[in-house]
UniProtKB/TrEMBL annotation:
<dbReference type="Pfam" id="PF07332">
    <property type="entry name" value="Phage_holin_3_6"/>
</dbReference>
<keyword id="KW-0472">Membrane</keyword>
<keyword id="KW-0812">Transmembrane</keyword>
<dbReference type="InterPro" id="IPR009937">
    <property type="entry name" value="Phage_holin_3_6"/>
</dbReference>
<feature type="transmembrane region" description="Helical">
    <location>
        <begin position="85"/>
        <end position="105"/>
    </location>
</feature>
<protein>
    <submittedName>
        <fullName>Phage holin family protein</fullName>
    </submittedName>
</protein>
<feature type="transmembrane region" description="Helical">
    <location>
        <begin position="56"/>
        <end position="79"/>
    </location>
</feature>
<keyword id="KW-1133">Transmembrane helix</keyword>
Amino acid sequence: MTQMSTHRRSDPADMSMGELVSSLSEQTSRLVRDEIKLATKELQAKGKHAGLGAGMFGGAGVVALYGVGALVAAAIGGLALAMDVWAAALIVAAVLFAVAAVLGLTGKKQVKQAVPPAPEQAMAGVKSDIETVKEHARR
């Protein structure tokens, strides 16, 4: 009986069938773990962008609500008082709506970066790995 060597042979041509299958199993497991890690990191980054964008949309809504309040105050001030009060309230409302617009557009940009929520880079890596394995199998 021959005793199996405990060291790995680097040339696949010198490896036994059992060693080749073992090596394939080990490399496949490592590849799957690495692809899962990549997909996890990618989904975490996309989730962060989605959360940030949603928070900015919420902020835009709050600021727009204040803008509506300022417009109401401007209308009341315009009817009840002299021109100066409602003009000032109108200016404040315009500034608040401008802030809301900036927050809304920035939030939209953040949400757009998070969509689609699929791990595209990881999927591309897996497809590339499959093509490489298929090509080597054909040889």
